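If you are new to this repository, start here. Below is one unmodified record pulled from the training split, so you can see the exact layout before writing a loader.
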Amino acid sequence: MEKITLKELKMDSRNDVLAFLKKLWHGEGAPCPICGSELELLHKKAKKSDCDWQCSQCGKVIRTLDLLNEINEQ
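And here is the target side for that same chain:
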């Protein structure tokens, strides 16, 4: 379980990243930006938070709040 950083997302603009994060927060799901397979909620059983997602294929973890903090720091 390796955490994805903003640089690894391979998205061209800030708006692309924000649109990706909003899709995840709305529970719509999205393809993994690394390998293209579908992302799943990291905390399925607890259902405490929809902020952390994991790719079942490559094992990368997307922590949306950490990515949002990285965007705001730029």
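Two things worth knowing about this chain: The CA atoms of residues 25 and 50 lie 6 Å apart. The first strand starts at residue 2 and ends at 3.
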